[in-house]
Design goal:
The protein has four helices and eleven strands. It has a seven-stranded mixed sheet. The chain starts with 5 loop residues before the first strand and ends with a strand.
Length: about 160
């Protein structure tokens, strides 16, 4: 962790504005046009699986899981995962993802999807969705549509359009 005193904890309502500001810095104004953002807009927050990271009193990262359906199968959509630019490449994003996945698994969830980089998310258990299995609203590079089974075989038989819950 490069000598950071990192604290990861559950997101609270009072942090929403700070998280929105972090997402703006990390992703810019074009983020709202992305398919995953459009899905999250329609989903209710799964706050039990949304986490923030602090170094001292500074918010340096945030991650959220939102409920979706993949065809008829309940799942969670990971993201946005944002880390302050000055704190990137220090394991903060990975720590946030891992705690979110463990919390979701402990609560009985089976499947998490995301749109992201397979090289980065692969080390946390994500892999590419087989071609043609899932479709998001709007254009998505199929090589960036990833899944993580929280229980073995969770993607078996799952297909269709991903919609907000």
């Amino acid at each position: 962790m490069n000598d950071l005193s990192l604290v990861v904890r559950a997101e609270t309502e009072v942090e929403r504005l700070a998280i929105d500001t972090l997402n703006e810095r990390a992703f810019g104004p074009g983020r709202f046009a992305r398919s995953a953002y459009r899905l999250r807009e329609g989903a209710r927050s799964a706050g039990l699986f949304s986490y923030v990271a602090y170094v001292g009193t500074l918010l340096v990262g945030a991650n959220r899981l939102s409920p979706v359906k993949c065809g008829g199968t309940p799942a969670l959509l990971l993201g946005p995962l944002a880390v302050e630019p000055a704190f990137r490449s220090r394991g903060i994003g990975e720590a946030l993802v891992r705690v979110s996945l463990e919390s979701a698994r402990a609560a009985g969830h089976h499947l998490v999807i995301l749109v992201g980089d397979e090289f980065y998310y692969g080390r946390m258990g994500f892999q590419r969705v087989p071609p043609g299995r899932l479709q998001l609203p709007g254009p998505v590079d199929p090589e960036r549509l990833l899944f993580c089974e929280l229980t073995p075989g969770a993607l078996t038989g799952v297909s269709g359009v991903v919609t907000a819950l």
